């Protein structure tokens, strides 16, 4: 049973068995909900058997079946009635999707956008960049009419997933209900954008409604393209294949690291650009640190397969990382791009070139495989009139204003600015976008500038981090003086920053519009 937590009190999964009922009981579940009809597929365990096993464990069980795509209001009402008064609920169907859909329907304030609407600012995407921009706008102009468009129910502190995969954080600590982090006095439209109409200052939603804006902010994030690697999607979360790039898989990384006693561990990195270029290495170093401290590393062959040609893009930080490559005896293979995974047989296939520069495929076995997937702008962005030839939103590197449409800005992972795609970059970009929009709104020249700052806390062992901070062109941009924290070396202070200070700073500072250390620089 691959259990996905929607909230602290509600989880979903694929079809469960009788052993899973025992597991759910031990975890404190008080109600099991089945959302699939009996006899939906051959060999399916009947609901009556699940119900009987649940009752034997003093749990309630209720059957609210519906066919995918055919959820009815009566089903939602029955679900609302069933879950009332239960502290911990688990629902299942064939894949878990229907159980997620019925939860969303039961908790959604309004399934439809009320009518065609108009706003001062429309922000596409309620991730780190979008919410931070909304909060910064409201700090400057509290009466501004703003809406955030995003269909997601949950908001995640994604930098925490590295520490989940290293056994430091629990996954649940990185999740909040989206409704709890949307800034006050901001309209949240729980839908998806289908098309952009920049000449008409409108966006069209998936439900056909049009939203008009005076200013548009595109903060739609990045697409993790799991299906670009043959066989990967089918084996994720099983057969020793994992990734810290997903909330539900990061705990599996830690499970694998704990249970691996010997064999071969492979960590991969795809071609750039990707979200947080150091994350594939972070997973590797924390796993190696665990094996090193438990005297298991000598029995495990660790390899890093990188589609790129260097360990890290900013040379100043490479010596510190290489010292850990040597400490953990990691074999590095550059210009090797993962193209296929055979999970059941535990084989990975990499595209590379031979000594004559001819394309070849290299095959290798594994016992643990941590994958970073190829990444791109989301499809609805790549197919829009807002992008450059590579499919990223085309903006000025400093002002973050669109190069063709003067009332559009973009920030975060989806823009084409040549900085590292990290949370720290979005933290620095949000005040720039907010200041420039307010200045444009009030008829002033835009002057706020982004300097390309990004940060990558490279967790090289539990308790120490190489705090890489740099801007455009790889220029070092340390927050702290060298005597306090030398960012080119692994330090305890940087670990304290990541583990103890940054999470509360994120939830209670950045998402609230507090701009500590990131006041925008103004063009003279």
From TrEMBL:
The identity of this protein, by name, is NAD(FAD)-dependent dehydrogenase
Q: Which cofactor does it need?
A: FAD
Q: Any idea where the Beta-lactamase hydrolase-like protein phosphatase-like domain is?
A: 5-105
What SUPFAM superfamilies does the annotation carry? FAD/NAD(P)-binding domain, Rhodanese/Cell cycle control phosphatase
Keywords in alphabetical order, please.
Answer: FAD, Flavoprotein, Oxidoreductase, Quinone, Transit peptide
One annotated GO biological process: sulfide oxidation, using sulfide:quinone oxidoreductase
Q: Name one GO molecular function term.
A: hydrolase activity
Q: Name one Pfam family in it.
A: BLH_phosphatase
Domain FAD/NAD(P)-binding: residue ranges = 119-238
């Amino acid at each position: 049973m691959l259990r996905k937590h929607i909230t602290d009190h509600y989880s979903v999964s694929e079809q469960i068995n009788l052993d899973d009922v025992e597991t759910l009981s031990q975890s404190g579940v008080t109600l099991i909900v089945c959302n699939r009809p009996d006899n939906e597929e051959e060999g399916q365990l009947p609901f009556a058997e699940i119900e009987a096993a649940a009752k034997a464990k003093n749990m309630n069980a209720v059957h609210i079946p519906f066919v995918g795509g055919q959820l009815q209001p009566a089903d939602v009402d029955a679900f609302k009635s069933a879950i009332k008064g239960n502290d911990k609920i688990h629902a299942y169907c064939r894949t878990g999707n229907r159980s997620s859909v019925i939860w969303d329907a039961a908790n959604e304030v309004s399934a439809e956008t009320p009518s065609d609407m108009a706003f001062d600012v429309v922000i596409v995407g309620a991730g780190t960049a979008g919410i931070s921009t909304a909060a910064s706008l409201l700090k400057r102009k509290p009466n501004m009419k703003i809406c955030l468009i995003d269909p997601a129910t949950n908001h995640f502190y994604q930098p925490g997933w590295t520490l989940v995969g290293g056994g430091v954080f629990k996954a649940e600590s990185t999740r909040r209900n989206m409704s709890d982090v949307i800034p006050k006095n901001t309209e949240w439209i729980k839908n998806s954008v289908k098309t952009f109409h920049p000449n008409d200052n409108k966006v069209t939603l998936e439900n056909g409604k049009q939203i008009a804006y005076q200013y548009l902010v595109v903060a739609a994030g990045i697409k993790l393209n799991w299906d670009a690697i043959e066989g990967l999607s089918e084996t994720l979360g099983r057969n020793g294949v994992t990734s810290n790039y997903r909330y539900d898989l990061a705990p599996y990384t830690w499970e694998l690291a704990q249970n691996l006693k010997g064999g071969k561990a492979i960590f991969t990195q795809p071609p750039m650009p990707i979200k947080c270029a150091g994350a594939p290495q972070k997973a590797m170093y924390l796993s190696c640190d665990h094996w090193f401290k438990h005297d298991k590393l000598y029995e495990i062959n660790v390899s890093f397969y990188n589609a790129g040609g260097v360990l890290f893009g900013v040379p100043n930080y490479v010596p510190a990382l290489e010292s850990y490559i040597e400490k953990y005896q990691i074999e590095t293979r550059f210009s090797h791009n993962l193209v296929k995974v055979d999970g059941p047989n535990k084989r990975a296939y990499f595209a590379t070139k031979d000594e004559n520069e001819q394309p070849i495929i290299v095959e290798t076995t594994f016992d643990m495989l941590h994958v970073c997937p190829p990444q791109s702008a989301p499809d609805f962005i790549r197919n829009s009139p807002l992008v450059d030839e590579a499919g990223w939103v085309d903006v000025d590197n400093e002002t973050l204003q669109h190069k063709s449409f003067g009332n559009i800005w973009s920030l975060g992972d989806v823009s084409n600015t040549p900085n590292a795609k990290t949370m720290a970059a979005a933290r620095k970009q949000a005040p720039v976008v907010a200041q420039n929009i307010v200045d444009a709104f009030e008829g002033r020249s835009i002057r706020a500038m982004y300097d390309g700052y990004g940060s990558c806390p490279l967790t090289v062992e539990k308790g120490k981090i190489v705090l890489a901070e740099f801007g455009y062109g790889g220029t070092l941009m340390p927050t702290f003086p060298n005597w306090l924290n030398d960012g080119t070396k692994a330090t305890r202070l940087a670990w304290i920053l990541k583990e103890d200070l940054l999470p509360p700073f994120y939830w209670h500072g950045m998402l609230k519009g507090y701009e500590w250390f990131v006041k925008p620089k103004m063009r003279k």
